[in-house]
Amino acid sequence: MKNAVFALIGLALAFAPMSGYQEGIVVLLCINCIAAMGVSLLTGFTGIFTLGHAAYMALGAYTAAIMTVRHGINWLPAVMSGGVVAVAVAWLIGVPTLRLTGDYYAIASIGLGEAIRLVLENWRSLTKGARGFPGIESYTTRFVAVAFFTAMGIVMFNLINSRLGRELKASRDDRVAASLMGFDTPSSRMKALLISAFYCGVSGALLGGYMNFIQPSMFDMMKSTELTAVVVFGGLGSMSGALLGSALVTSVMEYFRDISQYRMLIYGALLVLIMVLRPEGLLGSREVWDFLPNRRGGGIKP
Amino acid sequence: MTATVNDRPLLELDSVDMFFGGVQAVRSMSFVIRDSELAGIIGPNGAGKTTVFNLISGVYSPSRGSIWFREQDITPLSAYQVNRVGIARTFQNLRLFGRSSALENVMTAAQNRYRYSFHENMFGNLSPCYRPDPDYYCGFVESALHMGRWAGREKKIRDKSMELLDRVGLADRAGQAAGTLPYGMQRRLEIARALALDPKLLLLDEPAAGMNPEEVEALNVLITGVHRDFHLTTLVIEHHMDLIMAICPHIICVNFGAKIAEGPPEEIRSDPGVLSAYLGDDGKEETE
Amino acid sequence: MDFNFSTLFQQVINGLSLGSVYALIAVGYSLVYSILSFSNFAHGGFLVVGGYICYGLLTGFDVAFGREVLLSVPSMGGIWLAGLGAMAGAGAVAVLTERLAYKPIREHTSMTLYLLIASMGVSIVIENIFVILVGGRFRALPQGTFPAATFDLGGGVTVNASDLLSLGFAVFFLGGLQFFLMRTRWGLAIRAAACDLRTAGLMGVNVSRLIGIVFFVAGILAAVGGVFLSARYTLYPQLGGITTKAFVAAVIGGLGSLPGAVVGSLLLGLAEMLTAGFVSSQMRDLVVFSMLVIMLLIKPAGFFGKQISDKI
User: How many CA atoms lie within 13 A of A158 on its CB side?
Assistant: First the structure.
């Protein structure tokens, strides 16, 4: 049912007639939403707060760029590899850091995020350094972006509405109780991290194919903060909230593009205002369809 | 009340010591719980009862001594492994997944049933292993695509959970967020959640804490009923003497981290050590 | 680069001087963390506010308004008065931030994540207010603000007067903070609140005022750090980003521990300068963040942090 709704939205986005400018916005929305879903799984559903996920986007973007430009590999395997490289690095990072509880993963993620960005900046022979990596082919068409968004969205919603979702929420709400329900909580946390890294990696790879140019500074701590802020804005523990938050923030930022000087000021003020006025986010921990009247069945949801 | 207690030891603590820093919370604790028994641990507050549970369930590992479950040394296992061996517990200070619904709380446990079996290792020996119960399990890809066995397994998990909610009298509260349930119901939900794991041994940590007399009475019926219907070995911690005396034929009394008496209720009631350590303070103790 | 002892000494001196500036920032940051247990990323903004107020007082605010609208301070005591103004201004901004942004959130929820994101928002706001007001240009404090003398320690090792000055001021302010925390009534209350804010409140401490004082003190320290940082690196709206390093230092020392923050800062300053001297100055930041990660892996609570455990 939800899968069908998702597919319909995807079809509409992919085939509705629109201007080039609108197409650009749709592509950007899809890319941002893919990353937001990844971060939402980690932060909203597993309770692991991150300030370094832009680094996984960077890894995806650079992997895809290097594979397509340097080695002439087809874009599709390159984009998927972008996700896989992000997953591999996330695993290396996760093994030692996910043992840390509380704020410590967040703190480590700042260090790791910055370290990955600095490596990309300094490994000039591979990444062309801080000046950026130009000449990436435009493989992220509207159709490609929408297809990725739809497929990854369906998978994400299915996952959170089945055993994995319950497992992650259990380890988020009470780690001790979860482990006494037979969950190996470090491994639950690791699953969430790997999936979120894959989503961010693919999102970054698609971003490279849309912008035709990537640069380490596109993936700095500001971007990481944006990813987490968008998820909090939508509501922690609400996947559709993350999509809504991401779409709203992307649109607002697009709307203010002409007054770029004030854009960041507005963005910062928005973050503070949201936290002050509605810290539980737009949807709280509920999903969009929880607000619909007459739902069928004895709900799984509160 | 207890149908058949056979002589096979299910759980055995062998001179277990536990230190926190310089403080000894448990001292040379030894006892045996037999299969299908309904046993109780009593003792004044701070006697180390919950620490004993934390040791059995793998939250802490003992400083000395060993813990055996079904002839297997579970001393080195961590909490989630102990759980997979077949031990489930509730908590003195409730630990429900408060934001999830009552049903979801039980489903979270029901999806995690494990089965005990033997498999042949590389040396040709049989070694015990714990696999997910195939009736309640489906793989990652099936979950991600909601295809294959997913729907059937999900239904199985849900049906089992509803059945257990019904058993503890919470079927009509299935959709309510666990954290918003009244206190007594939360306690019963914890029992349903532990039962969903299909354990061999159920540890109940102060199940009557904060309940009024009628609720305690209903709880008595629930605990004995569950013990009988599921043939479930049950170990209850309480400082409510009455509850334990009423339902447990086998009682272990602890004080200052050490066992001071063990036996049936009549013996415990007349044991001079227990009287001075515990019953003598009964009036004061109830004000807690 | 070849190894030689004069480079070593030179870089150790530079490192201690840089570390002392980090320490001023890290201590304020850690102080807030010890009370409210959240990472206040707006701390960098307080530093920038301090830096620009100092610059503005020294140059008569021609940056902001294109002409000298206000009093020109150099005639009135120069850097001393400008420094005091910077401290007062940054302290006020810190208290204002607490009252307008953090307090409503604290009253609403106990999740520190929201405070953290709000603090990110505040830091973006402060940074961009300055971008709009004075532009993104790099600005050096006017010549003669700090004595330009250098002292030769022999063997090619020199030390700048301004480095010595920043070291001296750091010691002075950290000593002052220590005195304040150990010898005054509010200091005692702050130490009690760092152990347990709620209990301190129950014991009759005015928690709201206490938090205000903590932010004011943190703002003052940030301003001093800001003035010395702008003397060292010039002043620009993104200068606050450097607090990430002070934050790393605070984590290495143990979040919430003030001696830890100082030790971590000095270590970080030394590591940075030694890397710059012997490896390459581009690797400085990489070394900083690697140190953070390694420390978290080996000893997550830092050198002086307290271990946390939860009750079952």
Answer: 22
User: Do the Cβ atoms of A268 and C292 come within 8 Å?
Assistant: no
ipTM of the complex: 0.85
For residue C310, the chain B residue with the least C-alpha distance is B59
Write the pLDDT tens digit of every residue in B5-52: 666 788 999 999 999 888 888 999 999 999 889 999 988 887 888 899
Catalogue all structural domains in chain B, each as residue range(s) with its CATH number: 35-86+199-206+224-237+247-259 (3.40.50.300), 97-197 (no CATH)
Helix axes A142-160, A185-211, angle to 10 degrees: 170
Residues 37-56 (B) with a CB less than 8 A from some CB of C: 50, 54
| Greatest mean pLDDT among B132-141, B234-243, C214-223 | C214-223
Contacts of B51 in chain C (CB under 8 A): none
Q: What is the mean pLDDT of residues A204-208?
A: 96
Residue C307 confidence (pLDDT) above 60: no
> Per-residue pLDDT tens for A40-72?
999 999 988 888 999 999 999 999 999 999 898
* Chains touching B by CB (3 or more pairs below 8 Å): A, C
End-to-end CA distance of chain A: 20
Q: Which residues in C lie closer than 8 A to residue B46 (C-beta atoms)? A: none
Chains with 3+ CB–CB pairs under 8 A to A are B, C
Strand partners, C139: C235
- Class in CATH terms, C5-137+155-298: mainly alpha
B174 touches chain A (CB under 8 A): yes
User: Which of A173, A179, A182 is closest, CB to CB, to B197?
Assistant: A182
Q: Which residues in chain C have their CB less than 8 angstroms from residue B59's CB?
A: 312
Domain ranges of chain A: 2-11+22-219
Amino acid B88: pLDDT = 93
What b/e sequence results for A226-248 when a residue is b if at least 16 CB atoms lie within 10 Å of its CB, and e otherwise?
bbbbbbbbbbbbbbbbbbbbbbe
Q: What is the pLDDT of residues C262-283, one digit of tens each?
A: 999 999 999 998 888 888 877 8
Here the tokens at position C241 are: 């980003």
Q: What is the pTM of this model?
A: 0.86
Domain positions in chain C: 5-137+155-298
Q: How confident is the model at residue B128 (pLDDT cuts 50, 70, 90)?
A: low
- N- to C-terminal Cα separation, chain B: 31
Query: Which residues of chain C are within 8 Å of residue A279 when distances are taken between CB atoms?
Result: 105, 108-109, 111, 114
Q: Tell whether B78 is within 8 A of chain A (Cβ).
A: yes
Q: Which helix (H) or strand (E) holds A165?
A: helix A163-173
